[in-house]
Amino acid sequence: MEVHVTLGPRGEHAARIYRHVLDAILDGRLPAGARLPATRVLAEQLDVSRTTVALAYERLVAEGYLQGRVGAGTFVLATQTVAGDLDRPHATRTRRTVTRANPPTHDPTPRAVWRALPLSDTTVAPLARYPFTIGLPDIGLFGFETWRRFVGQQLRVSALGTGDYGEPEGLIALRAAIARHYGVSRGLRASADDVLVTRGAQQAIDLVTRVVVDPGSTVAVEDPGYPPARHVFTSMGARVVGVPVDEEGLVVDALPGSARLVYVTPSHQYPLGVAMSPARRTALLSWARSAGAVVVEDDYDSEFRYGQRPLQPLHSIDRSSHVVYIGTFSKTMFPALRLGFLIAPASLRCALRTAKQLSDWHTDTVSQAALAHFIDEGLLARHIRRASRHYAARRVAIRSWLGEMGNLLEALPSSAGLHLTALARPGVAIDDAVGRAKASGVVLRSVAPFHVDTPVRDGLMLGYGAIPVERIRDALRLLADALQAT
């Protein structure tokens, strides 16, 4: 461990070393059990004599802060040993040091908005026995051995080339692979030049907001909708307005005329799961043209489709370049990868590229190159097909159970994604049921927290990406008991 010491005049070197090490111990920067540098090593680092360092160490040993172990080195003693020594001559100094470590009166403070925005809970329940967790795929279905091979190939010096920083918009190979894959799988009309690689969908939302939204301008979001997107808009100083969602998706007639940006999840509405009807899609695009607004289409998990023919994304039917399409590999592959992308109109491309560079310069090039090969060899499409079969079986079990629970829950239509949603019948206390279910090891979410305004009707979200199929029957039995007890 390297110890930083600021030395003063030559005659004070030993005292300065003593004070710096003592402060580091009392502040917790040198924890109990930490091994200090040998006197010879620290003397060389500070360009002082070994005797000077030894004097400082000996004083700290005598006062009970350090302990020398023959053949092992010098170590910090446990804090309780030090704390009990307030009757020693250094007690006044100890009290003064502790006081100095307390927060000063005029600490720097964040803008008020950052004190109000919550930190999303990422400790969700994959460790629970029955996790109906939202937005998590089953990573056990992913071929990590193959993925490791692709990543390993890119970590060779021959693959890294000069090792320079990458382009903000991402590797051309990956952007081209994304354009080809989603051109076939989702019918998107895009080239590599239209694609910008991001660290997941959340960064894509952040970048678009930075480029499009002025402080004080209006942003429309689905109500209920995706809270982290709302929080991004709020953090940028936007006035966020919730727009109701019904069985056809966003109610376009309720959009505020002043909205600069509209955020939607039309293929698998989050959290209700409904798909935006063709009429509403046409109406939304017409509204965007008239209002001069940007439509942000978050297509977060619609690659997993079941039975019905999928509706085209808004981006593929947009003829006036008002839609920014956002995609992510967190659901199709695994969240730890932190790779996503956006496809933007040409008028926004340069600004988004600059915003990306200012944000983090560029996304990890090793993972980008590996993903480009993974897509081009057809392995992503193969994985999605295989995973979809597993998810379909889990989905069928949950839909069947929802049919049996019709007196308590109303299942909402959904043909894609990794979760199903059901609204509560009158008299069903969802919060109580969620609490009882959690006590039995069943973890799931209610719909209420996703609303901008007070919800008219609460419900349950049942994610099936993270729960093994063999546990679903027992989990649903426990959930039924929790609901019937309300």
Which keywords apply here?
single chain; about 475 residues; alpha/beta; 8-stranded mixed β-sheet; 4-stranded antiparallel β-sheet; 18 helices
Describe the structure in brief:
The chain has 486 residues and is of the alpha/beta class. 42% of the residues lie in helices and 14% in strands.
How many helices does DSSP assign?
18
What's the story with the biggest beta sheet?
8 strands, mixed
Q: Provide the spatial order of strands within the biggest beta sheet.
A: 4-11-10-9-8-5-6-7
Q: Overall 3D geometry? A: globular
SS-derived structural category: alpha/beta
User: Care to count the β-strands?
Assistant: 16
N- to C-terminal distance: 58 Å
Estimated helix fraction? 40-55%
Question: Describe it for me?
Answer:
By secondary structure, this protein is an alpha/beta fold. It has helices at 13-26, 39-46, 50-62, 79-83, 91-101, 112-116, 144-154, 157-160, 172-185, 200-212, 227-235, 278-291, 314-317, 346-360, 365-376, 379-404, 430-439, 469-484, and strands at 66-69, 73-76, 130-131, 195-198, 218-223, 239-246, 249-250, 259-264, 294-298, 323-328, 340-343, 409-411, 419-424, 442-443, 445-446, 459-463. The strands form four sheets. Strands 4-11-10-9-8-5-6-7 form an eight-stranded mixed sheet, sandwiched between helices. Strands 12-13-16-15 form a four-stranded antiparallel sheet, with helices on one face. Helix 7 (144-154) packs across helix 15 (365-376), helix 9 crosses helix 15 (365-376) and helix 17 crosses helix 18 (469-484). The protein starts with 12 loop residues before the first helix and ends with a helix. The model is unreliable at 80-101 (pLDDT under 50).
